[in-house]
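Next comes a single protein record:
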Amino acid sequence: MSATFPKTEKLKSRKEIALLFSEGKTIAKYPVRLLFRKTTTTTTTNVPIKAAVSVSKRNFKNAVDRNHIKRLLRESYRKNKPSPNIEGADQFSFLLLYTAKEMPDSNVIETKVKAVLTKFAKEQLS
């Protein structure tokens, strides 16, 4: 899979995001938390994973800070996203959440996102 994050792979559905919070499973490596859910809807695009990122407004009042953290999360996801052979025919929805209250370093975000995604891959293989 190429190391890009095109529009077709972005999770934008409010219904699907609400279902992630209510029915999704969680994998956490502080300060990054991954909510994931196997989707049953068939989309017109054959994308194995649709992903979104989120940062709490409660923890970061300035939009500039939230946007910076979201850019870091998207970039680290783009570099380390799971390959298609891990999922097989299943489709998933991902939501990466940043839960700490301090500004992160890009290296910390990179290692934690990588750890969360490898843990997800191990769970799906077993």
Q: What stands out?
A: Strands lie at 25-29, 32-39, 49-55, 91-98. The two ends are 22 Å apart (CA to CA). The domain at 7-125 is CATH 3.30.230.10 (Ribosomal Protein S5; domain 2). The chain has one domain: 7-125.
